């Protein structure tokens, strides 16, 4: 009979002891709640105690957590819309404040609230500058400003915002297509300008070459005419000298040249007077012309 009571009592005691003990991992923090009220904050790993059936333990992450925000459209001061999203790193630093701010929603509710804060700061900070600042080296300063503003507001949630980074800053799809079209038009205009400048330079080269051709041709013709004139003068001089030395032989050779040109192979017909002097050298038995046959005075 005694053992029949001892065993259940021991089991009850063991159950009470086990339900009053809890372990907090080194990666976690915990709150001990009694009827929804915070009775104990356990921020160090180890073994903890609570009142069984009355108190409960709620565990939270003590590690740095990440939060990727959803893409949103932002309008900078130059009215050029951008699609922006960010990635934040945060950590729970005040468990009691965190519990009061998010209630039973825990980390999911904290993520939703923190994302709203960060998105609002992104719109505020980026909306006060031009889009070129968002896409330049000033981006780091803007991200730090977003982080500091979000950190100040997130303290009411018991959260410390460690860092905020803009992961994407793109143009909306319709603006992106318009930008590409404008870039293509600019490149086409530049290509047209380059082609026009090239054609102008080519025309200049062709005009210069044509001018040089005309100049060279003119000079060559002038030199040819000079050489031809000098040759004709030399030839005439030779003819005159030869004629002066032997007029009869000169007349004979000129007559033979005339015969060669007039009497071509084939059916050649010549109409002239019978006493024409053209064939004097052929009609004279001695092969002399009329002038040569006459006695010298």
The biggest beta sheet reads: 4 strands, antiparallel
Spans with pLDDT under 50 lasting ≥5 residues?
Answer: 292-297
How many β-strand stretches? 9
Span between N and C termini? Answer: 196 Å
CATH-defined architecture of the largest domain: 2-Layer Sandwich
User: Could you say which structural class the secondary elements and strand pairing correspond to?
Assistant: alpha+beta
Shape: rod-shaped
**Overall number of structural domains:** 4
**H/I helix tally:** 9
Give the C-alpha Rg. 59 Å
Order of helices and strands: HEEEEEEEEHHHHEHHHH
Account of the protein in words:
The protein has 297 residues and is of the alpha+beta class. The protein has four domains: 2-61, no CATH class; 65-170, Band 7 domain (Tetrahydropterin Synthase, Chain A); 178-214; 244-262 and 273-292, no CATH class. Helices cover 56% and strands 20% of the residues. It is built from nine helices and nine strands. It has helices spanning 2-20, 95-102, 106-126, 131-134, 139-154, 173-245, 247-262, 280-283, 290-293, and strands at residues 21-24, 28-34, 37-42, 46-49, 55-61, 65-68, 72-74, 82-92, 159-170. The strands form three sheets. Strands 6, 7, 8 and 9 form a four-stranded antiparallel β-sheet that branches. It has a three-stranded antiparallel β-sheet with strand order 3-2-5, with no helix packed on it. It has a two-stranded antiparallel ribbon with strand order 1-4. Strand 2 (28-34) and strand 3 form a beta hairpin. Helix 2 crosses helix 3 and helix 6 (173-245) crosses helix 7 (247-262). It is rod-shaped, with a radius of gyration of 59 Å. Residues 292-297 have low confidence and may be disordered.
């Amino acid at each position: 009979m005694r053992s029949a009571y001892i065993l259940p009592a021991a089991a009850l005691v063991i159950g009470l002891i086990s339900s009053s003990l809890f372990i907090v991992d080194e990666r976690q923090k915990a709150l001990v709640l009694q009827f929804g009220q915070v009775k104990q904050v356990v921020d160090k790993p180890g073994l903890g105690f609570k009142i069984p059936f009355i108190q409960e333990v709620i565990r939270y992450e003590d590690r740095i957590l990440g939060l990727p925000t959803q893409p949103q459209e932002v309008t900078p001061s130059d009215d050029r819309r951008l699609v922006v999203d960010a990635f934040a790193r945060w950590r729970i630093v005040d468990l009691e404040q965190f519990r009061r701010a998010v209630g039973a929603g825990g980390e999911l509710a904290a993520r939703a609230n923190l994302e709203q804060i960060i998105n609002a700061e992104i719109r505020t900070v980026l909306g006060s500058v031009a889009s070129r600042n968002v896409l330049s080296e000033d981006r780091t300063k803007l991200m730090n400003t977003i982080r500091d503003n979000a950190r100040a507001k997130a303290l009411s949630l018991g959260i410390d915002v460690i860092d905020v980074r803009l992961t994407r800053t793109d143009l909306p799809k319709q603006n992106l297509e318009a930008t590409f079209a404008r870039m293509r038009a600019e490149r086409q205009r530049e290509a047209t300008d380059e082609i026009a400048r090239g054609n102008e330079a080519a025309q200049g080269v062709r005009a210069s070459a044509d001018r040089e051709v005309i100049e060279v041709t003119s000079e060559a013709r002038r030199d040819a005419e000079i050489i031809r004139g000098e040759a004709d003068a030399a030839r005439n001089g030779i003819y005159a000298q030869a004629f002066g030395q032997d007029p009869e032989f000169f007349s004979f050779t000129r007559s033979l040249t005339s015969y060669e040109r007039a009497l071509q192979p084939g059916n050649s017909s010549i109409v002239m007077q019978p006493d024409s002097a053209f064939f004097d050298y052929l009609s004279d038995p001695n092969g002399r012309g009329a002038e040569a046959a006459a006695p010298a005075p």
